[in-house]
Known about the structure:
The protein is an all-alpha fold. It has 6 helices and no strands. α2 (15-53) crosses α5.
Amino acid sequence: MTITDDIVKSLRNPTPLYAVAGTADLAAEKLREVPALIEKIREQAPEHIEKIKGTDPKVVQDRVTAGAKDAQARLTETYRDIDLKAFREKPDFKKLGESVQDLALQGVGRATGYAVKAREAYDELAERGKGAVASWRGETADQVVEIAAAVEPDRPAQAAEPEPAPARKAPVRKTAPRKSVKSDTPAE
């Protein structure tokens, strides 16, 4: 496929526009909830302010200390697999390499998981946008799909329908070139 075909195909793909429409629809839905949240905060704010004023600083300090100790324990547990003390005494490059490779694979696994979640969120927004666009236009989603299929017949939705076979052309007959006859006598 040529680059221009790729560009045209990507420009005809409505999914990114549906994702944007879905994002706008979701944002509008969340913005409708803001006045109720503001009212709730306004009602609860005096209680929270009094609660904060009545809090003992020593209790807060103990909580922060406990949180720091917990974070330190998790960090120690995470890096326990890399045994640097043993490495200093007797360098074991194989063990260190395996530890580093394990950590790298864990990072790749996490990144893959995040990519899958991002793709799922994108697809959900596109579906939401498809419905939002249909309701904004006053059309059903099926009509939009039919229009898209008519504009671009090589889309996967049309793959289930058999394509008509191209018409065969009759073979072209080649005729032998005519030989020109030269006469030795001059024309009068």
